[in-house]
Specification:
Blueprint: H1 10-17, E1 29-30, H2 33-42, E2 50-54, H3 60-67, E3 72-77, H4 83-92, E4 97-101, E5 117-122, H5 128-136, E6 147-153, H6 154-161, H7 171-179, E7 180-188, E8 193-194, E9 201-208, H8 218-230, H9 236-239, H10 247-253, H11 267-279
Parallel strand pairs: 2-3, 2-5, 3-4, 5-6
Antiparallel strand pairs: 1-8, 6-9, 7-9
Helix pairs in contact: 2-3, 8-11
């Protein structure tokens, strides 16, 4: 018996159902239920929330979320080998777990979720950043979710929380911090996983703000940030040349030296630049 419910330990579940982690699916299983419970708790009070989980695998975090009182968990799993293990969890928590077999990049979860909604997931490494960018750039804000509690490679986590002036600061930091409060809540060494990845991991908690910190058109802001950081060694007057005519005039107008590089420019100034470019259209 495990420490959080009456279900078997995860190593036993994996052996029973023959769920060896597949590199092609970005799988690294976290088998310590004490750690999965800590991740679930980092998502906050779950009792009045529906939870979206991507890539549950054998269900370690799923069990943590349910044991912590999540009202309902929707788990999207691409690997059919994991479905019997997840069905076993669903039977232990009647009516509180729905499992969809499918690709998270191609599945619309909203028909199966009732607000308020939070997202908590040990994201597969190969789709984690793409999913995060999608969640941070919806057509309308606030988004469908209240918060995201997500595990990434430590390098990605560092990029999300990065501040101006460092090599990890870039478009991902701007997209995340423009609209969210962000913080790293847990560090995990490779040895915590089966099989151990070659890199450390971290859990990031993002809380959606009611409105962005500074006004800007999200499409323009994203385009400006992408152009600036795609050629981050160049001065902005060169890297942003294709974004707008008279880019030096726009930079000077908002107080950014045209000789500055993108990594030195804060989010508020990027927003001001995006507004200046839009105003000239």
């Amino acid at each position: 018996m495990s420490g959080i419910d009456s279900l078997p330990p995860l190593r036993e579940v994996i052996e029973t159902h023959g769920i060896a982690a597949k590199k092609a699916l970005g799988q690294n299983f976290l088998l310590d239920l004490n750690l999965t419970a800590r991740i679930a708790r980092a998502a906050g009070d779950l009792k009045s929330c529906d939870i979206l989980e991507i890539g549950p695998g054998p269900g370690g975090l799923t069990r943590g979320l349910l044991a912590e009182g999540a009202r309902h968990v929707l788990a999207i799993e691409k690997d059919p080998r994991c479905l019997p293990a997840l069905a076993q969890i669903a039977a232990a928590y009647p009516g509180r777990l729905t499992v969809i077999e499918g690709d998270a990049l191609e599945t619309d979860p909203l028909a199966h979720l009732t607000p308020p909604i939070r997202v908590s997931a040990n994201l597969p490494y190969n789709i984690g950043t793409e999913l995060l960018v999608r969640w941070l750039t919806p057509p309308d804000w606030p988004p469908f979710w209240q918060s995201l509690t997500l595990m990434f490679q430590r390098e990605v986590a560092d990029r999300i929380v990065a501040q101006p002036g460092g090599k990890t600061y870039g478009r991902l930091a701007i997209l995340a911090q423009w609209r969210c409060d962000v913080r790293i809540v847990l560090d995990l060494p490779p040895q915590a996983f089966t099989p151990p990845p070659k890199v450390s991991s971290a859990v990031v908690h993002l809380t959606a703000l009611p409105a962005p910190r500074w006004p800007a058109n999200p499409t323009t802001l994203s385009r400006v940030a992408a152009a600036g950081f795609n050629q981050r060694r160049k001065m902005l007057r060169a890297s942003l040349r294709g974004v707008a005519s008279d880019i030096e005039g726009h930079l000077t107008a908002v107080g950014i030296p045209p000789t500055e590089r993108a990594e030195q420019v804060g989010i508020e100034d990027f927003c001001a630049l995006a507004r200046s470019i839009d105003a000239a259209k």
